[in-house]
Design goal:
105 residues; mainly alpha
């Protein structure tokens, strides 16, 4: 039975803190489109930001909102050291958060 792997991401969304040309070039080398707003240093940065698909970029802000809510309601801090355990702990915290939301409704 073949092992099923996830396809690589086609787009990466991040905030302006990741606005670095070398980071964008690495993403493009892997055929990944960066959806990262440019910090405004020159007039053409406005044009770059206007070309970003707002609907897809706003998905980033929704995930940041959920992360913030989880941190506030559950005092979220990952204690694990290895990648797999961090992932597992984060997934369990998300499950607990979703259960709490379902109970409130």
């Amino acid at each position: 039975m073949p092992i099923e792997t996830n396809p690589p991401p086609r787009k990466v969304t991040a905030d302006k803190g990741y606005d670095k040309q070398s980071f964008r070039e690495v993403l493009r080398d892997f055929d990944i489109r960066p959806l990262i707003k440019h910090r405004i240093f020159a007039f053409y940065d406005h044009a770059h930001n206007a070309r970003i698909d707002e609907q897809r970029y706003n998905q980033y802000s929704m995930t940041e909102t959920v992360n913030s809510a989880i941190k506030r309601s559950l005092n979220f801090a990952v204690q694990a050291r290895s990648w797999f355990r961090e992932f597992r702990e984060t997934a369990l915290i998300c499950v607990v958060y979703n259960i709490k939301r379902a109970v409130k409704q």
